[in-house]
Amino acid sequence: MLDLDLPETYETGDPTRIRDSIADVPRQMREAYAAARALMLDARPIRSLTIAGMGDSAIGAEIALGAFDGAIRAPTNVIRGYDLPAWARGAEDVVIVVSHSGNSEEVVACFEEALLRGCRVVALSNGGYIAGKAAELGLPLASCGPGGRYSATTGLAGLAVVGALTALGILPDTAAEAEEACAIVEESNRMLGPNVPVMRSSCKRLAGQFMTRVPILLAGGHLAPVARWWKIQINSTAKMLAVWEELPEFNHGGMMILDTLGAKWQNVMAVSLRAVDEHPRIALRHAATATLMLEAGMNIDSVRARGQSKLAQAFSLVAYGDWCAYYTALIAGIDPAIYGTVPAMDRLKDFLAQAT
Hints:
Elements: H1 7-13, H2 18-23, H3 25-37, E1 48-52, H4 55-67, E2 76-79, E3 93-99, H5 105-117, E4 120-125, H6 128-137, E5 141-142, H7 154-168, H8 175-192, H9 202-209, E6 214-220, H10 224-238, E7 243-247, E8 268-274, H11 280-295, E9 299-304, H12 310-332, H13 343-354
Parallel strand pairs: 1-2, 1-3, 3-4, 4-5, 6-7, 6-8, 8-9
Helix pairs in contact: 3-7, 3-8, 4-7, 4-10, 8-12, 9-12, 10-12
């Protein structure tokens, strides 16, 4: 297996220095939060909030909403698709569109529909159609980070959404939680980065476990979106299959196959993502699920979040997943830069363009 303790492993396997992009995420998170928090937004009452995004943007929004569940002063939902909910139809309904490129066709469709319906629109985007149109119309617009050659932008989108919700008055002051989240990602980078030897890095060792097994990521509560993020990172960075499941839902369906697959479970690696202050029933379900998986012959491990606030806990595990996917790519001999290396994505875009 590739030696993750050797400097030449990174020089050869990561020629575009994606490791530097991961290390730079905390700075970008702070900038995204500050830009969105500084928006001068309409203070009229809000009936509902819809956030439209895809991939890392949608997950960042879900992490933001989950971290402040109970404190958000309006009904909220996240849309992954082309259509706004029926109730979003006027100036009392806020639609936040989040797109790094500004050109994701699903988010563009929601953006245009929100304008037609007279909703209050806030754009978090770095360019493309959405940023251009928002600037043209004088809509609130803030950068949510640069995006680019590495898909590690959930933190940027999440902090931008937290800043926007604070600027809207839906959330009280969030500066302390935002700074803790950024600081814990910085600390995670020091604890998980390439300079940490394999013997002291559970992250590098877990990546090695993924080489011959399909990862199944399990999480509940506000960490469920983080499990989904791990799945996306493993897919996009290491170009490997991964699955995510949410507790307690997994216990109502997914558990049904534990008794039937036999030796095939040896080809699976389950990882439980655990919060500091889990709901006691979620904690019990994690423990019981792990026991049943072990009895079925499955390989299983867990990673515990760090931090005081839910936002910091979520992003401590986001950082862990970013590095774990990065190491998995290197061990597999895959370039961790995602753009320009996925022919299937280019073909998909061609198919969609031809059908327009």
